[in-house]
Amino acid sequence: MVTSVFLKACPNCGGPLEDYRALAGLPCSKCLPGDISPFKNLSIDEKIRLIYNILVHENKLKGYWNLYYYHQLSQEIIDYFKKITGKEPWSLQKLWLRRLVEGSSFSMSAPTGMGKTTTIIVYSTYLQNSNKNVLYIVPTKSLMQQICEKMEKIGDKTSCGKVGSGISIVTVNYINRNFEEIKEYRPDFVAVDDADAIVKSGKTVDRLVTLMGIPQEVYEDAIKLVKLKRLLAIEEKRDEIETKIAEIESRISKYYGTASQLVVASATLRPKGIKQKALKYITGFDVSTAQIYARNIIDAFTSSSVVDIVNKLGSGGLILVSKEYGKDKIKEVNESLKELGFKTAIALSGRKFLEKFSSGEIDIIIGSASYYGVAVRGIDEPKRLKYVIFYGVPKSRVRLSQAIYNPYTLLKISKLFNVNIDDNLILSLSPSEAQLIKLAFLKSQKLTGKLGEIQKILEGKIDEVKSALKAVSNEVISDTFLIRKIGKEFYIEYPDAITYLQGSGRSSRLLNGGLTLGLAITIIDDFKLYEMLKRKLQYMIYNFNPTNFDSLDIGKVKNEIERSRNDKNEELHISTGLMIVESPTKARTIAKMFGAPARRNIAGVPIYETVIVDGNNVHILDIVATKGHVADLTTENIGYYGVEIRNEDKYPYYSPLYRCMNCKRVFSQEIDKCPYCGSTLISSSMSTINAIRKIAMEVEKVYIATDPDVEGEKIAFDVAANISAYNPNIYRVKYHEVTKKGILEALANPMNIDLNLVKSQIVRRIEDRWVGFELSKLLQIKFSNRNFGAGRVQTPVLGWITKRTEEYRKNMCYVASIKLGNYTHKVFLDNKNVKIDKVIVKKMEDKDDIILPLPPYTTDSLLIDAYNLYKLPAERVMKIAQELFESGLITYHRTDSIHVSNKGIEIAKEYLDKKGLIKSFIPRSWGNEGTHEAIRPTRPIDAEELKKEIEDNPQAYFIKFTWAHFAIYDMIFKRFLASQMKEAIGKYTKYQIKVLDNVSEITVLTSIKGGFSDVLKPRIYEIPEGEIQVNPIITKGSKVRLYTYAEVIKEMKDKNIGRPSTYAKIIQTLMRHGYIVESKKKYALIATKKGINVYNYLNSKFSSLVSESTTAELLEKMDMIAGGKLNADNVLTEILGQIKSLVTSLNSEQQI
């Protein structure tokens, strides 16, 4: 039996915890000895109570007190809520109540009608009963009065409109006007109903900080932190800046929990100013709430007048006037509607118009189509607001003379005027780097270092664009924007899709358990811009297909709109959950794809909160990244290299991971100093585990969404083992693409952790440790050097490279490289001085043949082609592919499957149709569906379209793109597309080449047409015929070619050595040990003297342990364990026996 033991995992003593107890949510066998079966069918509350009582009775209670106390406190506040309201709190309200009673500061992310105000009122009175002070800040007097009335029904110490003892309910204006009188007031809890007023004003933030009891020096440190993080893009000062940031963060962290608790009930704006941003570093969360893009809207367009539309639709409308028309147009629309008898109000500031609209005093609201305007973001009136009219296509207009200083904008404009500029130079910039360059231009400053060099190049390009503009008289149109001359100035205009989403979304809100039906009409004032808007929204919104307003059955639409507001909609199912992924990039990508997430921080671990609406299911989801594995086999002196052997049973001990903040090395043993560089700055994966435990207690369900492979399964198992005591509702979810569809399908199909996959990984890791450590120890003794190391899988690969290197050296000669058109012909020579001045080339025959497309990429074929085409090493390709996967651009990249799903086939069809190549479309699934799919794009956009997308929205992705990212994406896209196209017709030509007395024949592809060759052309050779004068390059070489990266990977695939996830690591490990090197000119892999000596020694003494056949056989056994066909314990026993036998034999021969 194999039982994993997790160090520092016991929820009571913090000691070692056996996996079966961990997954059962129990303390370790020392704290709670005996049979665990009595705990199996208990609820989480019953189990915690029983364990607590036993620990108290046995006098063993330690850390479990915190878990017990949290559950008691949570139950107390939930019971109090029931008592006060007479209702069971919804799952979302329970989450808020748990966070509140624990003292957390956070944003309440949820649409209107989810019970935010009720929750705050209940919690405020709960605190009041403990003689604590509450400050409740609201935006308007009318809202203040409503809350005061509700509060007074259940509380007895409410100060309405002023600060007093108990609960004080005031407006933002009251705080600003009366700050001097109340600045000594210190509430225990601050609730902000609408944070937009705070986000807009730095002075209000100053006052809030004082009232919350935050020391001035901490506030100033937080402001410094914001400024320093903006400077991180300056590479030459990066290390110095990072050191300062770490010092300030350390100082601020000491004050966590000492200030007032702060909760924001709603906020639509992101903090912009330095002071507003500083607040998040003190409170641990952004003062903004998650924004959702869920909608149930009929989108329409028209050329009709606004008066005609309002006449047809009647009361309950919002008119958003495009910004460039200004206030005069808003007033004009207002007057024209008043003349028709409609009661209207202009919404440019304040909230009085909304109160009148809600009460029915106003029929129509008119405002500006501005993303930050109160009419776009500040209206939430599900019953009354039924339709939205956009007067003019919502657009943004900026002066070209200013916009051109933004590198991304400059790139877009340069392409319009055929100004040559390197795409990769711009697209490799991070948004903060681009911002620094823009500010430097605006302030006439000169940057230094890499950014200074780029600034200098861009300066010349700006001048070229300005010269090109002189020839423009009216407008220039691109796919995504246009340049228009207005008066003497040039402006860039582009459609504002986000304002359209936010504005139209006012007509479709949550009500009666569902989304109301809304209507959004755009009065088109510019057809070119409307087409751009439509294309952009079709990318952002699934099934966006606007209809002509004049073709709608208005009576029917109005009835449906009314029905959705008056009838009981299908009940919403709201759940709260925690999703755990590996990488921060993936966490941000998933959180952002469903809207703008809220962010908070728990002990340095970032958490993203998003609202996912899927039909009638609403998931309030916190997303956190583990940053890879959270545990590994310990290197502490336990058992046999971290594995205790007790009779026939094995107990691998897993330690939290420790990372040196200085040299970034990772180790699995708790020590005070880094064993590599001596630094004492060491972080631990326990901080991540503790943050996950904390969130797990707040939510209903935990979804572990790590990568869908063996390593991802092991991470899931380790996380589950560490958090099951805190929340037993743990599910494994898998997806093969980071897209909306992929995530929604994963959430809809939760499963259990595959323990067979976990056992397979455990065996692989133990085998790797035992063989690696034992062989490394013997090598270090043999060669008197502690830097020697070895592993079972690396050794056969080292053997191939060693043997090829030796053969290469035995067959040394001179090589004449002769250029024949675009073909290089090689001839081996014994003498360097042989004169070759002519070559005779004779065409033997032409043969037409059908060429079938290749299947989409698997991991090995991608690595091989990336190396052959771009000389990119496997490790870098895997890193790029990982980033493309995590950004939602390609499917999972560690795969040996060539299967294509129906979704993939549809992507190819859509793209080919878009490009006019649909006649070449041939759908192919490439075999049966398996665990994985081939590597393919997730959307029908090619590399150029991807570049354009990043130009338009530099913050669309969370990775820094380089030329290599686009190259790899282009390879994947074209290979996949070709796999879904007709075969091509190719011509193969046979040539006879005579060099001196050497006569040889070659057959090469000389032309190709049709089918897949329209998107992916193989290399075509053009070889001249007849007697050709040549000037060959003669170099020292060999008749035997050295291995390349690509060939070694192909060898590993063919001989079943390694797996898709390990190909790159094996070669990198051999390089790190100094056993092989890569030649600079030929990019060939060469065994070093050190590598040759190591291989010869291992092969002579341990051939049965490290041979090709033994290694391949072991990997097959691991696959059988993963499939549940082989016992893991038996395999480990066999491996242990092999190692012990060989080491004993070697010791007895005294040959070490």
UniProtKB/TrEMBL annotation:
Per the database record, which ranges form the Helicase ATP-binding domain? 97-287
Which positions does UniProt annotate for ATP binding?
93
Q: Name one GO molecular function term.
A: reverse gyrase activity
According to its UniProt record, the EC number is: 5.6.2.-
Keyword annotations of the record: ATP-binding, Cytoplasm, DNA-binding, Hydrolase, Isomerase, Metal-binding, Nucleotide-binding, Topoisomerase, Zinc, Zinc-finger
Q: Which residues form the Toprim domain?
A: 576-738
Q: Where in the cell is it found?
A: Cytoplasm
Subunit notes for this chain?
Monomer.
This chain belongs to the protein called Reverse gyrase
Tell me what gene encodes this. Answer: rgy
